[in-house]
Design brief:
heterodimer; A: about 325 residues; mainly alpha; two-stranded antiparallel ribbon; 12 helices; 2 strands; globular; B: about 140 residues; 5 helices
Chain lengths: ~325, ~140
């Protein structure tokens, strides 16, 4: 695609996403009409379209759809944050489950690396989910805003390392045989890898689990830097294994929300289907859309959604 | 240290990874199929809902505890007795997606056990215990 049509497609995409969220905000009360005056089917349809667009931009931006879902839907749709977080977890879970088999078969996801990290993160995600459901919604909204703004900073400043140098694996990494080989299709080479700093990595995933459960936000934004920059896994292995970890962590946290009744199919299903269809389109557009540009736009959207969540939580922008 | 070599003709993953991927693939497909089919049945009116669709806009802005009180939706596993309702049937698909990891992990145990990898046998069983504990509903939190 030549630059002009590509720019037009990108602009349309972003305008579409902004329009759907703005329309949701207006229908929610910005026009003076109460949310329940709008026909019921408008909301799931709007949710589907919003998630479809989020799915398209999430892949080239290199983040999980769940990271966009909770701050945007929580800020601009009329659903209570309890249901938004339940649906957010399901969106992240379904995406991770759908991607998992391909990543594992291709060697990009390492089960051996993911399992020890997932055990701790799963356990802590249960605690996070229980804590999140016990806290008042405005407090969760404020904390969510702070977290999303933190993610913005992380996305803006973090550097990635394609093949980090791990000179010597630590004792725990050796004991668990945390190493492997994957075929890098970009270079056509088989890459052998190993990891270090396993204990700090385990503690980091303990904290990541709490955040994943509390906010239903998915945790790819934290998993990948932890695996890549802290533990030294190659970037592609970090991204693939993060998905496997997510599928286990979000399973545990999702059960807490299911048992509490905080997963509403009317919110969860259009979100999951929209996000998965959008992600398929996003994956196809990976070589067409400029990842760096999309990433900057997504950072801008998260900045807006994070600020909105923070202001909504404090009551300054209800 | 990371090193690059010429790739083998075909890349074969460890057997446990292949098995896990196969089971996860099928479990996810079944879960998603039930999720979408039940949703279509619910919104089309083919199956009645515990909560009628046109009542939802007045309810979904409430905290979950108030939503349950107003709709009589049961907590925990109480929904299993109500699978004839379209919205509740959707929870079956959701539960399948949230539970699919358990059989996948259990299927790894014989492979790791045969190789004498006790640490990974323990890790798999521990992860199953964590997910099962979460699913059991024994842990509860709320407003």
């Amino acid at each position: 695609m030549s630059p002009a049509p590509r720019r037009a497609a990108l602009a349309l995409l972003m305008v579409g996403l902004l329009l759907t969220t703005a329309a949701a905000q207006a229908a929610q009360g910005g026009t003076g009409a109460p949310a329940d005056a709008v026909a019921w089917w408008v909301w799931p349809l709007g949710l589907f379209v919003t998630c479809f667009l989020m799915g398209i931009v999430a892949v080239p931006a290199g983040i999980g759809g769940g990271t966009l879902f909770v701050p945007i839907v929580g800020s601009f749709f009329p659903f209570h944050l309890d249901f938004v977080r339940g649906a957010g977890l399901l969106v992240a879970l379904a995406s991770a489950l759908a991607a998992g088999p391909t990543l594992l078969r291709g060697g990009l996801g390492s089960l051996r690396l993911a399992l020890p990290l997932a055990v701790l993160a799963s356990a802590s995600s249960i605690a996070g989910a229980m804590l999140g459901l016990a806290m008042p919604a405005n407090v969760v909204q404020m904390l969510l805003g702070g977290l999303v703004l933190g993610i913005v900073v992380l996305m803006a400043v973090s550097r990635k390392s394609e093949f980090p140098l791990v000179e010597r694996p630590d004792a725990l990494s050796q004991a668990l045989a945390l190493h492997g080989v994957f075929l890098d299709r970009a270079s056509g080479q088989a890459v052998t890898w190993q990891v270090h700093r396993t204990l700090p990595g385990l503690f980091t995933f303990l904290a990541i689990g709490v955040l994943a459960g509390m906010f239903g936000i998915g945790a790819g934004w934290a998993n990948v830097p932890a695996l890549n920059l802290l533990m030294g896994a190659p970037l592609k292995v970090a991204a693939g294994s993060s998905s496997v970890v997510l599928s286990l962590v979000d399973s545990s946290a999702a059960w807490v929300y299911i048992n509490r009744g905080a997963v509403l199919p009317m919110i969860a299903v259009p979100s999951v289907v929209g996000m998965m269809l959008g992600a398929r389109i996003g994956a196809r557009l990976l070589n067409v859309l400029k990842g760096a540009v999309i990433r900057r736009l997504v950072i801008g959207m998260l900045l807006f959604a994070g600020t909105r969540a923070l202001l909504k939580g404090t009551g300054l922008w209800p | 240290m990371t090193s690059m070599t010429s790739p083998p003709d075909t890349q074969v993953q460890p057997p446990e990874q292949e098995r896990y991927a196969r089971l996860l693939d099928w479990g996810t497909r079944v879960g998603l199929l039930i999720l979408v089919a039940s949703f279509v049945a619910y919104v089309s009116g083919l199956l009645p809902g515990m909560v009628p669709v046109d009542r939802l806009p007045e309810l979904w802005s409430l905290p979950v505890a108030q939503f349950q009180a107003r709709t009589q939706m049961p907590g925990g596993w109480g929904w299993l007795a109500l699978l004839g309702h379209g919205d509740v049937l959707g929870l079956l698909g959701i539960a399948l997606l949230a539970g699919v990891s358990i059989p996948c992990l259990l299927a790894l145990v014989p492979i790791y056990a045969a190789r004498g990898e006790k640490a990974y046998v323990a890790i798999c069983l521990l992860e199953v215990a964590v997910v099962a504990l979460a699913a059991s509903g024994l842990l509860s939190g709320g407003h």
